[in-house]
Design brief:
Elements (H helix, E strand, L loop, with lengths): L1 E10 L5 H11 L3 E7 L2 E8 L1 H13 L6 E9 L8 E7 L17 H7 L43 H8 L20 E5 L3 E4 L2 H13 L4 E4 L4 E6 L3 H11 L7 E3 L3 H7 E2 L2 H8 L5 E6 L9 H4 L6 E4 L4 H10 L3 E5 L11 H7 L6 E5 L11 E4 L6 E5 L19 E3 L9 E4 L2 E4 L9 H17 L6 E5 L5 H13 L2 E5 L1 H12 L9 E11 L5 E10 L2 E7 L3 E2 L4 H5 L1 H8 L4 H7 L5 H12 L4 E2 L2 H11 L11 H17 L19 H13 L4 H23 L3 E5 L6 H11 L4 E3 L11 H10 L3 E3 L2 H4 L6 H5 L1
Parallel strand pairs: 2-5, 8-15, 10-13, 12-16, 18-21, 21-22, 23-28, 25-30, 28-29
Antiparallel strand pairs: 1-3, 1-4, 2-3, 6-7, 6-15, 8-9, 9-14, 10-14, 11-12, 12-13, 16-17, 18-19, 19-20, 23-24, 24-25, 26-27
Helix pairs in contact: 5-10, 14-24, 16-19, 19-20, 20-22, 22-23
The structure holds zinc ion (2 copies).
The site of one zinc ion has 9 residues, from helix 4.
């Protein structure tokens, strides 16, 4: 008999790893112990060499479903004799904290069955969990992951629960979130002006049902924060919710109780079903079936759109509520317009009565707020695209191993904020942290970052951020570096996008030239202009801006993103046809003012996002937009109509006959659209032709670069039609790379910043191109 030490790291805490080791070791009659440490799970035991190897092998091959092993080692260690086999509490005695944080896990099927089983002692207990499901990241306060270091610390287990916790044969053996209605978490419901109505859990559940039936809006504390619930088939209630939330058109998600109902009303493929029912349980964007009227008010839920955000209950509480109600419910993050999700009970009681008629809380705190994640799958090529990465996905990112052990913090961009932290050889990409605009979003950003740094007891030595000094993430980084004396680095916005998609596809070290097509709304360019329609080439750790959409004037700062009609006049500036079509969208004083601003413009943009806005305005799909990408989504809906009728077949594209050798002629594109519009071409046709033209550019530029490897990033690639069309035409011709575990939008910037810095990527100036930055014609002729 010798003494051995097995060390396993990865997502190995909070997922039932120690119980699994205990069971394997006990079955083999091995003596020793297993415990969580700062850097994973450790097993010390006595065994023959053969048994030691067998145990090591078995541990690796019987890892619990939610575990992810990154490293595993078996070594002989100092002789020590053990009696029996024990599961020990955490060893927090030193060493670098390296363990990966588990995300929150949706209710498993066994817990779900127990929840609805009248004979089970946890029947209708809204916080049922086991080692394979329940909240994790949202309740972790200290590492290693043990009950006393989570928001469960204040709940003492009753005799029955303790019995399960200590019973090796029980599936709740060492389950840190273990509780029941006797010893666990209780619901409370509050009425207007925060008057407590009841804190009897069964009574609260009955009231939720009756209040919802009566057309009320009920705020319910979920896993990552409060959700607003109301009947999805009551137009008046939904309108009221929109009014109170100051949300004119942004779509709401809908909670269904089961997959069968979703299957009945929506076109849902296997990939989408898997996502809905998976452990991440995100909101999935689905198309209602055409031949059967969906059982919700489509117009009120998602005005002007052809897809609905659908989700299934990911927590037992939502499972009970939606099951009791029996009909689909609107389920949307409870926040005050522009601010992040509310997750503290005191804030909920203070602010939510402006929106909700009732508030339901429970007495376990949320340590880390998270929104529901949003995912969609492109229709044709079934390319999954993450729109919002949060609950269920954040924070661990396993596909990328940092090159150094240096602690680096990358602070991200602005509108879709996130941060990335590289610590002790692991990389964490935070959940979506709001828009970065409001004070509350900025507070949440700070708190989440401090929480993660605190968990790992680290301080960054380098901080990486966006070049735009107007961004909160930039100011935060500067402040941080000054206060803490750490180094600061700046990475260009679109280069960060490109670095992120390169890293996600393991292309950083390829010797081939890779084309990066990075299209989004805005980002500060290296020349001081607003970029967003970019073509880069990456090779040998160097990034060159190959070309871009010709610059057009950018005026009125933020207003331009909110008013597609301004993008329309900027991209068509001075053209007779543009003036004729667009003038009526403005009061004459506005028109004259904007024309002057355009003539005198000193700031220019190449943004494809703004080009989408401009086309949407020309087609009268909307001159104002409530949220980023709204106008572009309406354009996509129209283009999808065309494709549904005609397939991916188009009679031509807007760049035919254009010279794209130097840069992409924005004016030429816009002229084509104006002409088609003037000639009375159908809107779906024009919308589809715009998409197709962009798809054709992929090929045009890839030929110029002479590469077969193309990466795509930026918010424009949330457009599933564009992605499908690209894959439809080029899957056989090029190697196409999209984001995998991150969103294509600005949520990936923080990760890209980290990658860019860590891999010492250099931004090279393309001399021949930088000199020929054409702007749209008006600017040149003036
Ligand atoms: Zn479970
Ligand atoms: Zn109990």
């Amino acid at each position: 008999m010798e003494t051995y030490h097995i060390h396993i790291n990865g997502i190995v805490q909070g997922v039932g790893f120690r119980p699994m080791v205990f069971q394997l070791a006990s079955a083999m009659g091995i003596n020793g112990y297993v415990m969580n440490g700062n850097n994973g799970v450790h097993v010390f035991f006595n065994a023959s060499e053969a048994d030691a190897h067998k145990l090591f092998h078995d541990i690796k091959h019987h890892a619990p479903a939610q575990a992810k092993i990154i490293s595993a080692s078996l070594q002989k260690t100092t002789d020590k004799t053990f009696e029996g086999f024990a599961v020990l509490m955490d060893d927090n005695s030193g060493g670098k904290k390296q363990v990966l944080l588990p995300p929150d896990i949706a209710t498993c099927s066994t817990c779900s069955q127990e929840l609805h089983d009248e004979t089970n002692r946890r029947y209708r207990y809204p916080f049922i969990t086991c080692t394979q499901c329940g909240p994790r990241y949202s309740i972790i306060k200290t590492l290693p992951y043990e009950r006393h270091g989570t928001a469960m610390h204040s709940f003492d287990m009753c005799q029955n629960c303790s019995g399960e916790y200590e019973d090796i044969g029980d599936r709740r053996f060492f389950s840190q979130t273990n509780s029941c209605s006797i010893c666990g978490i209780q619901l409370t419901i509050w009425g207007s002006a925060a008057i407590k109505i009841s804190n009897d859990t069964s009574n609260v559940l009955l009231r939720i049902k009756s209040y919802l039936s009566a057309g009320n809006i009920v705020a319910v504390k979920g896993i990552g924060g409060y959700l607003l619930l109301c009947d999805a088939a009551m137009p008046g209630t939904i309108e009221l919710l929109r009014k109170r939330k100051h949300r004119r058109s942004k779509p709401f998600a809908v909670l269904y109780h089961g997959i069968n109902e979703v299957d009945k009303y929506y076109e849902v493929n296997d990939c989408e079903k898997k996502l809905l029912q998976g452990k991440e349980a995100p909101i999935v964007l689905l198309r209602p079936k055409k031949d059967i009227a969906v059982n919700i008010c489509l117009t009120q839920v998602a005005p002007g759109l052809n897809k609905i955000g659908v989700m299934l209950p990911y927590s037992p509480l939502l499972d009970i509520i939606s099951g009791d109600y029996g009909k689909p419910l609107i389920a949307t993050s409870a926040n005050i317009s522009g601010s992040p999700i509310i997750y503290k009970d005191a804030d909920a009681l203070e602010y939510l009565f402006n929106i909700a008629d009732y508030v339901v809380s429970y007495n376990r705190e949320i340590a880390v707020p998270q929104d529901d994640s949003v995912v969609q799958v492109s229709r044709n090529s079934q390319q999954p695209l993450i729109i919002r990465r949060s609950r269920g996905y954040a924070p661990s990112l396993l596909q990328y191993a940092p090159r150094t052990n240096e602690c680096i913090l990358a602070t991200g961009a602005f509108l879709k904020s996130s941060f990335t932290l590289s610590v002790n050889g692991n990389v964490f990409v935070s959940q979506f942290l709001g828009s970065g605009e409001s004070y509350e979003s900025q507070q949440m950003y700070r708190n989440t970052q401090e929480h993660l740094l605190g968990l790992y007891s680290v301080k960054p030595t380098t901080i990486v951020t966006d070049k735009h000094h107007g961004y909160f993430s930039h100011r935060y980084a500067v402040e941080f570096s000054q206060k803490d004396g750490c180094a600061i680095q700046f990475v260009q916005h679109h280069e960060a996008h490109f670095a992120a998609v390169l890293a996600e596809n393991n292309l950083l070290h390829t010797s081939h030239a890779v084309l990066g097509i990075i299209w989004d709304g805005t980002g500060l360019g290296n020349d001081g202009n607003i970029w967003g329609g970019e073509f880069f080439v990456y090779q040998h750790s160097e990034m060159v801006r190959h070309s871009h959409f010709d610059y057009f004037p950018t005026i009125t700062a933020d207003k331009m993103a909110q008013q597609p009609r301004i993008s329309a006049i900027c991209t068509t500036s001075g053209t007779v046809m543009g003036n004729a079509i667009l003038k009526e969208k403005f009061m004459s004083i506005e028109w004259n003012n904007y024309q002057k601003l355009i003539c005198k413009a000193t700031l220019f943009s190449s943004s494809v996002g703004r080009i989408f806005d401009a086309v949407a305005s020309i087609l009268n799909l909307g001159d104002m937009q409530e949220y980023e990408g709204e106008a572009a989504m309406y354009l996509q809906v129209l283009a999808e109509e065309y494709v549904a009728a005609n397939g991916f077949i188009m009679d031509g594209h807007y760049f035919e006959g254009a010279n794209c050798d130097s840069n992409i002629p924005t004016a030429y594109l816009m002229q084509g659209i104006l002409e088609d519009s003037k000639n009375g071409k159908a809107k779906p046709y024009i919308a589809a032709k715009l998409h197709y033209s962009l798809v054709c550019l992929v090929d045009i530029v890839a030929r110029q670069v002479n590469t077969d490897m193309i990466c795509f990033s930026g918010g424009v690639f949330q457009n599933t039609l564009l992605v499908d069309w690209i894959r439809q035409l080029y899957d056989d011709k090029y190697r196409l790379f999209f984001h995998k575990n991150l969103s294509p939008n600005d949520e990936n910037i923080s990760f890209g910043q980290l990658v860019y810095y860590e891999n010492k990527i250099q931004s090279k100036i393309n001399n021949s191109k930088e000199m020929s930055n054409r702007q749209v014609e008006r600017v040149l002729t003036d």
